[in-house]
Design goal:
Blueprint (H helix, E strand, L loop, with lengths): L24 H18 L4 H8 L3 H8 L7 H11 L25 E3 L5 E5 L9 E8 L4 E4 L7 E8 L2 E5 L2 E5 L4 E5 L4 E4 L6 E8 L6
Antiparallel strand pairs: 1-2, 2-3, 3-10, 4-9, 5-8, 5-10, 6-7, 6-9
Helix pairs in contact: 2-4
Amino acid sequence: MNYLHTVPYLPEIPTPTKDCNTGDDDAIGQCVAHNLQRLRSKRYLSLDALARACGVSRAMLAQIESGRSVPSIKVLCKIAKGLKVSVAAFLENRAFEGVELLPAQQSKRLVSASGAFISRALFPYDMARQSEFYEIRLRALGEEVSEGHGPGIQENLVVAQGVMEVSVNEERYLLSTGDSILFYADQPHRYRNPADSEAVAFLVITYPERLD
């Protein structure tokens, strides 16, 4: 299909310079301001049009968008309803509106040097996050060895197809289809496929909460 129509120019909106998740009022205000401007521009809405759609005055919207005012939850809910997005969309450092489709062919894939181990990211691979979700494929009789990750990192794996042997330090655990295991991944660990057919598993990696 050819797309021959032109798209109206949208000015590039700089991303917030502060992390929205720090809890700092200035950072939250800057994040909300950035996302409000981005979401409103994406929909080609004027401040007046958005004010009519959400029931928040144009003056208040202008103050929020300029970063001069941090809205209450009640006001933010009204704006979110008018824009038809999640409230959480205003607190993201990245352009995420609550739903994001990830086509399989565009997924980030990591392949081991031997080619026996393939992991596919099942999440947007563009910023740090507290948890990550992967599809794991391990070739027949293949293995993947790790000396351990950072302190406090956990791995939670469930086997979707075949069998997989998971070793944590020197302890071995054999998982069949449907079995799962959770362990601290800052220890040496290994994934091995003892069978003569491919094994498929899903892996969630959880990072410890930051204390700063």
